[in-house]
Structure formats: C-alpha cells, structure tokens
Amino acid sequence: MPTFELNKAIVQKAEHYHFDFALSMIKLRGFGGKTEFWDHNLESFTLMAGLAAVTSRIQIYATAATLTLPPAIVARMAATIDSISGGRFGVNLVTGWQKPEYEQMGIWPGDDYFSRRYDYLTEYVQVLRDLWGTGKSDFKGDFFTMNDCRVSPQPSVPMKVICAGQSDAGMAFSAPVCRFQLLFRQRRKYAHGFRPDRCADETGRRANRARRWFLCVVYGDCR
Fold first, then answer.
1. What is the C-alpha to C-alpha distance for residues 74 and 45, in angstroms, rounded to an integer?
2. What's in the keyword line of the UniProt record (predicted)?
3. What count of other Cβ atoms lies within 10 Å of the Cβ of residue 73?
C-alpha cells in the first residue's frame, strides 16, 4: 500500500545514491482484479510537496491530470512547491487517456477529446507560462478564458515542464515546450526510431543528447 513514509524512504534513498529526479504518477482509477493494479494511488502534488520538504538535492516532479485541475491552480501549486523545494520542482502534464478515470467523476469531455487533447494541452501550457512568467494571464482560447488572472509569488527559477506523449501529436506538442520527453517503448525498433533532432529542427530548438532510462519492476519481500 502506498504511504507517504514509504515514498519518503524511497526518494531519500534515491537522493543518497545520486538519482537525478523523482516523479510521482497520478492514477484516478485502477484496473482492479486480484492484484488491485493501480487501485491505490496518492495525490501527486500533495505527495511531492511533502517530499520536497524532506529532500535537498533531487529534482521533484508532480503529475497534473489536466482535465481535473485548472491551469491557474496548477500554476499556483507549482509555485508553492518551488518555494518548498528551493527551485527543484517541475510538472509532468498528462492529457488523460483512460476514460473511466474521468467518467466516474462526470468530467469526461466526450470521445472527440482524443483528437483535440494536445490542442487543449497547448492552451493549458500557454496559461501556465503566462502566470509563471509574468504573474498574470488574459489568454483567450477555445478551451480556456483568463480575465486578468493572477498568481504571486512566481517560481524562483524557470519552471520545468515534461510530458510522456507517445503519439505523433504528443511528440509534436512536447518538442517546443517540454524540458524532457519521456518515451515508453515496448519494441526496441521504436525507441531507436525516435529522432529528437528532427523534432528540434521542426520547432527551432537545439537537440540535446538523447538519454535512455529503463523502467524496471523490482520484486521483493514487501511484508
């Protein structure tokens, strides 16, 4: 069962061994069954705020389920955790792909959302950038309307945004706005087929050296 104490022990150990970052996922409904897969999940921003207070070096990322959190609220929460962490905080943005997570709360926007979710996220990030950069936003778009919206204090350092979009639309969104692009490929050929230099050329950004991380499941005695 996930608890704050368990997560604190893991992240403090990761910091001790010089891991670069800790990222908290968000899952609003698991898959059930005998293993109760992802049925139990702590709220990401609250968890990472607590972990920011008990660490000193490791980068801390919380995940925003963007259908559930208005961008102005995420901007303020992120600025708060930036203050707690001393500039070590960043935000992982997810559009939402598992319909039952949002249907259970009555906030699923309809299946046409799948084709427009990165348009939604593009506007979402623009509001975040406005509020983090200038402390106010008057953005008007198809999904969001800001009317002299304010956030203060602003983050002490430029806020890091990351994303794990795997579709062509997801990667096209990530290339111009994200610090990192997280990819999870089941087949080796897909991982080797990803071309950060091509994405950078298309968006005018300099391509940094691509890095690979391995996602592993560790089995052990958890009694």
1. 9
2. Flavoprotein, FMN, Monooxygenase, Oxidoreductase
3. 13
Cβ atoms 165, 177 nearer than 8 A: no
Both tokens assigned to 108: 């699923």
Topology, domain 4-216: TIM Barrel (3.20.20)
Q: What are phi and psi of 57, to 5 degrees?
A: -125, -40
Pull the structure tokens for residue 10.
């893991």
How far is residue 70 from each of residues 73, 124, 125, 127, measured CA to CA in Å? 5, 8, 11, 10
Give the model's confidence band at 146: pLDDT under 50 very low, under 70 low, under 90 confident, else very high: very high
In contact, 118 and 173? CB cutoff 8 Å: yes
**Which residues fall within 8 angstroms of residue 196, CB to CB, at 6 or more apart?**
175, 181, 207, 208, 210
Answer yes or no: are the C-beta atoms of 92 and 48 closer than 8 Å: no
DSSP secondary-structure letter at 165?
A: -
**pLDDT for 185-221, tens place per residue?**
555 555 555 555 555 565 565 555 545 555 555 655 6
User: What pTM does this model have?
Assistant: 0.84
CB-side exposure of 223: number of CA atoms within 13 Å?
Answer: 1
Contact 148, 164 (CB under 8 A): no
Domain boundaries along the sequence of the chain: 4-216
Other residues' Cβ atoms within 10 Å of the Cβ of residue 66:
21
For a pLDDT cut of 90, what percent of the chain falls above it? 70
